[in-house]
Amino acid sequence: MKAKKRAVVASGKRKTAVARAVIRRGQGRVRINKVPLEIHQPEMARLKIQEALALAGEKATKVDIDVNVHGGGIMGQADAIRTAVARGLVSFYKDDDLESLLRNYDRTLIVPDIRRKLPKKPLGRGARKMRQKSYR
Fold first, then answer.
1. pLDDT digits (tens, 9 = 90+) for 42-76
2. How far apart are CA 58 and CA 104, in angstroms?
3. What domains appear along the chain, each with residue ranges and CATH number?
């Protein structure tokens, strides 16, 4: 009897961007919204995503990672993707050493960043900027 294929689903969030990563055994392919990571643009976002894969090293080359991401901007999506990938690798391998390595490098690889935009206030143009008052 064949061994059952195992897949792990992990999620990551940043601002309003949400990423879901599906990790299964494979040849090290990484796809973001069905597009290979090698041609993902812009380059800064691609390098940010590759940090988690570079730190995992050999373990990242033995799995295929499919990521679906929506919402937010380009860099918010990149942060959400790297969190989802790092959390997925840790849960796929059940490796505490890998988790501590990622957490020591950058805590937001494992723990999502919960900061959000401040809401707009009355009499203002945004969260902090206010219209000038005149007293004369």
1. 899 999 988 888 888 888 888 999 999 999 999 99
2. 19
3. 7-109 (3.30.230.10)
